[in-house]
Amino acid sequence: MSSEAKKLFNIIILGVSFMFIFTAFQTCGNIAQTVITNLNNTDFHGSGYTSMSVIYGVLSASNLISPSVVAIVGPQISMVVSGLFYSLYIAVFIQPATWAFYTASVFIGIAAAVLWTAQGNCLTVNSDENTIGRNSGVFWALLQFSLFFGNLYIYFAWQGKTYISESDRRTVFIALTVISLVGTVLFFLIRKQEDTKAPEDDDSTNEILGESSSARNKMMRAVAAFKKSITLSFTKEMLLLSVTTAYTGLVLTFFSGVYGTCIGAVNRFGSEEKSLIGLSGIFIGVGEILGGGVFGLLSKKSHSGRNPVVMLGIIVHFIAFYLIFFNMPNDAPIAPMEGTDQVAYMIPSKEVAMLCSFLLGLGDSCFNTQLLSILGFLYSEDSAPAFAIFKFVQSSCAAVAYFYSNYFLLQWQLLIMVVVGFLGTITFFTVDWGTAAALTARGSDYSSI
């Protein structure tokens, strides 16, 4: 097998592994609050929203140390160990206990930071400047397919159920745990790349592969990357883009946890209310994959820049928020186990609910593909610190959103996203216009980026 074929094989294995792990984890997150509200065990007092808040809060803080861990252990072992912690978190739902639930939430937060840092390193070492776009697109598409399979299973397994029994819960989470373990084992198939770079280029590759001459040298590089992250955090462009990134964190919380809970709480949907959670996840996945394909893989064919894509994303999201406001009862995010019989401004429509799921996924892909693009362009020499800041801000805002989701009615959650989304769009435009002006002054063609 040629070197290029081996690298593409590694990218495909990386994407398939993440697809399995996040098929399990995203499905778990989508149904966690619904399952918890159906628990008869009076000894369990956990909250799915609080758990996700803990996960994203710890993930945010752990981004400060994850580069050091990956530099010392290596990306492959880092991903394997992190995958085991993902499986452990999902397995807790088989026989829930409050202490185990929140303890696992802390550990998976650490594991998530390490997993995504290792994923970035693995993607980098198996790509070059000519293949990074293709490889990122392949990985993105495979990852987003995770929204299909688990949710499709939930749709059929919970068809006609208005109450999730202990047997139903155990069956689902045993299956999800096994799926997560399969993805973890697949990491072992990633083949180590042989050194093909010139001697002066060896340092960065060796650091990623765990081949540096000493652990101390790796730690020094990790400390240097951390210092660079702090410096970049206070640049004008990064501060402006952080508002846009914050919006993606709020939206991530809403479509991955809150919206599914809202759908599952609407009694007017009848016997389909629980299975519709899975169908909603599928439509979100369709939107994500469509957006990722059009604006990610086909980005080189675009001649209009990034701003129109972001504008499309915010318009699509505002339409979704407007329809959700009219379609979903205001108390749906915090409804009790019995659900809610309230009606918003129209009789709840399953078709409108699924349309909103698709729009949420499509709009999210618009923002994420363009954020990744502009960060990679602006900070091509400091990509690791830049993306660490991106993940830090996104995870912090997701943690905050999961926390207030325990208490805020739907209208206030939507209002927060509208305000932050509007501001984030303006700040993105500001950075993009500044970038275009700087390139024009240098005689470069911005539309070719």
UniProtKB/TrEMBL annotation:
Name any GO cellular component annotation.
membrane
Q: Which InterPro entries match?
A: Ion_channel_UNC-93, MFS_trans_sf, UNC-93-like_regulator
Is Cytoplasm among the key words of this record? no
On whether Transmembrane helix is a keyword of this UniProt record, the answer is yes
Which top-rank group of organisms is this from? Eukaryota
CDD domains for this protein: MFS_MFSD11
Q: Any idea what this protein is called?
A: UNC93-like protein MFSD11
Q: State the species of origin.
A: Ptilonorhynchus violaceus
